[in-house]
Specification:
The protein folds into 2 domains: 187 residues, Rossmann fold (3-Layer(aba) Sandwich), CATH 3.40.50; 169 residues, Rossmann fold (3-Layer(aba) Sandwich), CATH 3.40.50. It is 38% helix and 17% strand. The strands form 3 sheets. Strands 3-2-1-4-5-6-7 form a 7-stranded parallel sheet. The chain has a 6-stranded parallel sheet with strand order 12-11-10-13-14-15, with helices on both faces. Strand 14, helix 10 and strand 15 form a beta-alpha-beta unit.
């Protein structure tokens, strides 16, 4: 039995979906089912550390969303048949899917952002796939949702039967994200960066308006006015849509000298960045899971979150919540975490306990079991 794994749009393991795929690959036993990767040739060596023994088949020489979507719709069925796959796994099923498959197919959906909010704000998917995505999702034999929030969206937007969807939450690597000793040093050195403490952290790509950076910058100004504390605001993430507008807002802020954009931040250094922060704020209007909140909680860092999408599901009672449309409400929670030590310590304790519920081992175990169940028969 051979199972194909589609690596298209998993960003060579560098994005959230890429980390998800890497964690699954690390936990595939050398024995048992035979797995095979396929994707763009430039990703050929991206998964070597996690799956060095797996064969990688290069396909679709043309890059770009639309071209790759067409490859999945037109070329994938013949390719999968030629490889005699017993099943095929699509880790980024919310971005890349064929319309049909000659073998049983399983897809993981991390969010449905392409269908949420005003059209101008939606995540770009590619014209070809957008037209057929919901039908393609319905054609999957099994659908994995990373949260109950996403499951509800799949039922509402794509009209997928509930019996076909299983919620398998993401995990967190507790050997990487864990509480580190806090010292008295005023500067955190994470090459090539130097961060002056104390700082408030938000880890997310700069994507306006869905990631809500502008209201966070406004809330930070209110926080500074009310407390006169020396805190800085660190915004860690690569530029995306609307980044220039976010930076213009920061440049106009009275506290612009205390706002720091890192650009793309290396994932290997994220644990240190979290641990050096006083607390984290996640104002995002939409998250399919809330990976950043989970990483912060596992690092022993209190969190204030938007009461939006899956964030309350991920953090549960371990975070303070605010209305993402109200900078004043956001600032209130920031002031509470900065001034009330008992609330701070309670959030930290609850966050560490909550993080124990999420395991990559359990995620991979159930995901691989679903794949093998599908490969066993249609």
């Amino acid at each position: 039995m051979k199972i194909g794994i589609d690596t298209f749009d998993c960003d060579g393991g560098k994005s959230g979906v890429g980390v998800y795929l890497l964690e699954i690959l690390k936990r595939i036993s050398p024995s048992g089912a035979q797995y095979e990767l396929f994707g763009w040739d430039f990703d050929r060596f991206s998964y070597n550390d996690a799956a060095g023994d797996m064969e990688f088949i290069s396909r679709c020489s043309v890059t770009g969303n639309t071209a790759n979507s067409l490859w999945h719709i037109i070329k994938y069925p013949g390719f999968a048949a030629s490889r005699s796959y017993g099943a095929c796994f699509f880790p980024a099923a919310h971005k890349r899917l064929p319309n049909s498959s000659p073998c049983p197919s399983v897809g993981t959906v991390h969010h449905m952002a392409v269908y949420r909010g005003p059209r101008a704000n939606r995540e770009h998917l590619g014209a070809a796939l957008r037209m057929v995505l919901t039908r393609s999702l319905r054609n999957l034999d099994r659908v994995i949702a990373v949260s109950n929030w996403v499951k509800g969206e799949l039922m509402e937007i794509a009209h997928i039967r509930e019996s076909k969807i299983e919620v398998v939450p993401n995990g967190v690597d507790l050997s990487t994200f864990y509480p580190r000793p806090r010292n008295e040093e005023s500067v955190v050195l994470i090459q090539p960066f130097s961060f002056r403490r104390p700082y408030i952290l938000y880890v997310s790509r700069i994507d306006h308006p869905v990631k809500n950076h502008i209201r966070l910058i406004e809330a930070f100004g209110i926080f500074k006015e009310r407390t006169h504390y020396p805190h800085r605001l660190v915004l860690a993430g690569a530029d995306n849509r609307g980044a220039e507008r976010v930076k213009q807002t920061a440049a106009k802020s009275k506290y612009r000298n205390d706002i720091f954009f890192t650009g793309h931040f290396p994932s290997t250094s994220l644990p240190e960045l979290y641990s050096g922060s006083d607390f984290v704020v996640f104002p995002s209007m939409y998250e399919g899971f809330g990976m950043g909140v989970l990483e912060a909680m596992a690092s022993g860092v209190p969190a204030a979150c938007a009461r939006a999408a899956s964030l309350p599901e991920t953090a549960d009672q371990a975070a303070l919540y605010f209305d993402p449309l109200k900078p004043e409400d956001m600032a209130d929670r920031m002031v509470t975490l900065a001034t009330d030590r008992s609330v701070y310590l309670d959030c930290r304790k609850r966050g560490l306990e909550r993080a124990q519920n999420y395991s990559w081992d359990l995620c991979a175990q159930r995901t691989l079991a679903i794949l093998q169940e599908c490969a066993g028969g249609r």
